C-alpha cells in the first residue's frame, strides 16, 4: 500500500518510470494533507482562551476533518488500483469473439472506475474547502496561515483530480455518464475556486492586521 510507505519511498516511487502512482494519487495526498491541517487548526483552537464560544463548533469541524483525512488517505491507493485495473483489462485475452466482448466490457468498466475515483477525490477536496471556509474566521489566529495553506492544498487536490477525471472520459462510450461527469466536475471547480478565494482573502486580511 502506498500510504504505508515512508515519505521518501513514496516520492521515489512517484519519480520512477512506473505510470502509477501518478497525478490522481498525488491529488488525494494533497487533499489529505489539507484535511490534516484543518484538523490541526481545530485542535489548536479547542480549549484555548478567547475561543470558548466556538468550542462546540470546532469539535464538530475536527470530527469532519478527521473523516475527510481518512477518506482521502484511502483514495491515494484507490486511484493507483483503478489505473492498474485498466491495464489488467487491456491484457485480457481477445482470441475469440466472446473474449473480445468480455475484454471490451471490462475496459469500459475499468475506465469508469478510473474516472470515478478522482471524481470522488475532487468531491472530497471540495468538502475540505467548504469546511475550511466555514471556520476560517473563527479559528485560533496564531494558526491562520495553516488554514490558508490547507485551502490551497485542497484546491490543488480538487483541480488535479478533475484533470484525472477528464483524461479518462474520452475513452468512455457511455455518453450519459460522460456528460454528467463533465457537468459535475465543472461545478466542483466553480464552487472550489470560490471557497479558495474567500479563504485566501480572509487569511490575508488577518495576516496584514
Automatic annotation (TrEMBL):
Keywords: Coiled coil. It comes from the Bacteria. It holds the Pfam family FTCD_C. GO terms for molecular function: catalytic activity. Residues 48-78 form a coiled coil. InterPro entries: Cyclodeamin/CycHdrlase, Formintransfe-cycloase-like_sf. Residues 7-187 form the Cyclodeaminase/cyclohydrolase domain. This is Formimidoyltetrahydrofolate cyclodeaminase.
